[in-house]
Amino acid sequence: MESCKMHLKRLFRAGAAALAVSFFMHVALGQNPPPPPPANAPPGQPLTPQQLDDLVAPVALYPDPLLGEVLAASTYPFEIAEAEQWVLDHPKWKPSKLMAEAKKQNWDPSVQGLVAFPDVLARLAQGMSWTTPLGNAFLAQQADVMQAVQRMRAQAEARGTLRSTPQQEVTTSNQNGQTAINIEPANPDVWYVPQYNPVYVWGPPVYGYYPPLIYPGVDIGFGWGPGIDLGLYFGGWGGWGGWGSRTVQGEISTISVGTLMVDLYDPGKKQLIWRGDASKTIDLNKDPDKNYKNLQKAMAKLFKNYPPQPNK
Predict the structure, then answer these.
(1) What DSSP string describes 209-266?
(2) Taking a C-beta distance cutoff of 8 angstroms, is the pair 90, 115 a contact?
(3) What distance in Å separates the CA atoms of residue 142 and residue 147, rounded to the nearest whole number?
(4) 21 with 180: CB under 8 angstroms?
(5) Are 73 and 108 contacting, i.e. CB atoms less than 8 angstroms apart?
(6) Contacts of residue 60, Cβ cutoff 8 Å, sequence gap at least 6
(7) Whether the predicted pLDDT of 85 surpasses 90
(8) Domain ranges across the chain
(9) How is the chain split among helix, strand and coil, in percent rounded to 5?
């Protein structure tokens, strides 16, 4: 048992790699579509571009820095659930106190930051059947997820459903020959979260279905939530990347994640009987021992649900 633990520690340490992901990548559109993807991909099989397009549709038009935090937070579904309930338990706290206390909780900084966006946090918590696959895809296929976001933005822009407004600024940039559609808050101090129905923005999905969340009616189509004054939550506001251990700035998201996945496979039945996965944000500028302790906490979470319980 002890040797198994040491092996797992080595695996966990090996997985702690800094992943610099280009937030927006050029994707060629108009190609002949492949056959429809299966409704559910087998465990461990990457999602197809069409599946990823449907998966990111509810957040593809979020402003860039908020989208980065949502994708990062989606890799911590249990913490999202805890944070959403915690916010509900403190309805009378002022924004500054809520954020100050949130930073004391044992949540990833991305989850802490979403306390300032209660509607977004509630959506992630109440749509776990979507949030969890989104987080898994972001961990396993970060570049593919970003490409899906770009595809959906390009299609929305072509349909006229994505454009600059008093709430957001939509621009196109070129980095190293790659075209990117960027969405930034029009006012860096007050952010608006778009509320839209994917069917209104893109039409019915070509394959599969959009995540079964609560959307505005197609007749309403596209609207905005209330403006979030970041100064009320963060005090001396210095930019989204100015707090916590995660950096999300414009078009490049640098995310350091240690990840461990353990599969138990029954060779007789040829089927997966249990999967555990855990991840923890790593700040490579901090003390390595502190980072390792964070990874140990994540590993403890992984084995919390082991052994698997028999189906009743």
Answers:
(1) ---------TTT-EEE---EEHHHHHSS---GGGSSS-EEETTEEEEEEEEEEEEEEE
(2) no
(3) 9
(4) no
(5) yes
(6) 67, 148, 149, 152, 153, 156
(7) yes
(8) 2-15+255-305, 28-253
(9) 40, 20, 40
Work out the pLDDT band at 261, boundaries 50, 70, 90. Answer: low
Burial bucket for residue 157 (CB in 10 Å: 0-12, 13-18, 19+): middle
H or E stretch covering 9 = helix 2-14
Q: CA–CA separation, 7 vs 3, rounded Å? A: 6
**C-alpha angle 215-220-222 in degrees, rounded to nearest 5:** 70
Phi, psi of 16, rounded to the nearest 5 degrees: -85, 80
- Pick the closest to residue 11 from 305, 271, 260, 274 (CA basis): 260
Q: Where residue 264 falls among pLDDT bands split at 50, 70, 90?
A: low
Instruction: Evaluate the CA torsion angle 93, 97, 103, 105 in order and state its sign.
Output: negative
> Do the bridges between strand 190-191 and strand 194-196 make them parallel or antiparallel, or are there none, so unpaired?
unpaired
Whether the Cβ atoms of residue 44 and residue 277 lie closer than 8 Å to each other = no
Q: Which residues pair with 198 in a beta bridge?
A: none
φ/ψ of 180, rounded to 5, equals -135, 140
- CB-based contacts of 148: which residues, under 8 Å, 6+ apart? 49, 52, 53, 55, 56, 60
Of 162, 138, 140, 167, the C-alpha closest to 151 is 162
C-beta separation of 241 from 68 below 8 A:
no
Q: What is the DSSP string of 115-175?
A: GG-HHHHHHHHHTHHHHHHHHHHHHH-HHHHHHHHHHHHHHHHHHT-S---SSEEEEEEEE
Residue 68: which H helix or E strand, with range? helix 64-73
Which two three-digit tokens encode residue 304? 């919390």
Q: How many CA atoms lie within 13 A of 172 on its CB side?
A: 11
Q: Which residues contact 68 (CB under 8 A, 6 or more apart)?
A: 23, 240, 248, 253
Mean pLDDT, residues 235-250 taken together? 34
